Predict the 3D structure of the following.
Amino acid sequence: MEVPDEIKKRLTLPFEEHFYAGHTACQGCGASLGLRYVLKAYGRKTIVVIPACCSTIIAGAWPYSTLDANLFHTAFETTGAVISGVEAALKARGIKVKGEDGVMVVGWAGDGGTADIGLQALSGFIERGHDAVYIMYDNEAYMNTGIQRSSSTPYGAWTTNTPGGKRHFLERRHKKKVIDIVIAHRIPYAATASDAYPEDFLRKLKKAQKTPGPSFIQLFAPCPTGWRSPTDKSIELARLAVQTAYFPLFEYENGRYRINMPSTKKDPKPIEEFLKLQGRFKYMTKEDVETLQSWVLAEWERLKKLAEVFG
Ligand SMILES: Cc1ncc(C[n+]2csc(CCOP(=O)(O)OP(=O)(O)O)c2C)c(N)n1
Ligand code: SF4
Ligand SMILES: [Mg+2]
């Protein structure tokens, strides 16, 4: 479709779409929005590898797939291994991989499929140095199977196996910092991103495309169904996660840290602003909120220190 010039001038994202409408995600799904952005950045010359997760259902089966790109459905724990194999097979056939004109091999896996069951395959992919991009879309629980906690679920959250209330317990462990494990491999490029800041996300996708070797992006992707949040609040929640420093946006590139958001010059917003819009946090006591707030601020201070020393 031809875009009128006056609209073209105002566009901050590519106009073209490779993610069809009419898919099966819930209203306000951050995962589907994230995948749409990935295909805006990389276009059709992409092989997307998706393990068992909500995105399997959203992407759908050939020939009815919602992706206008190549799609490889795979087993839950195998994303890192499959993107390694696809990349190696393309190279063995003399096909250029990654870079501006190469085929993009993209792993698109959930937090359960990355932080838990897929961690070993992810580690192998990074350690062997394959030319592919691994994107973990983080909705902070196993959503596709009915909202069970993962190691990326935050302290104080309700899930169906941490149900809260008078007789049950809530999630009592803090969110696993998967990106720290990734960085421990001394990966060439790793970053966090958010559905609320698409220009920043696309810039990072492009950087991952240009950087030789493995790249990793952890995308904060709200899930109104699992978070018990209004469907029209997903972007606001993704923004608040950044503004409260609960999910700061930063990059790790060739050993250097750079914080993108929030500002390091002023205090982040209180965590309550992020919590109060979500039913999953309704069982938290005042002490629980304080515990989470202290953890968020301690992690934020740690990140600022890393950016100061290794910036
Ligand atoms: C080996 C194996 N164990 C369990 C499952 C069942 N299963 C399918 S999707 C899923 C949840 C995926 O969670 P996550 O990776 O966070 O993605 P989300 O559903 O949240 O998008 C589970 C447990 C499976 N398919 N294979
Ligand atoms: S359950 Fe959550 S992640 Fe899954 S499709 Fe619905 S909104 Fe998206
Ligand atoms: Mg998940």
User: Anything to note?
Assistant: The two ends are 43 Å apart (CA to CA). The longest strand covers residues 104-110.
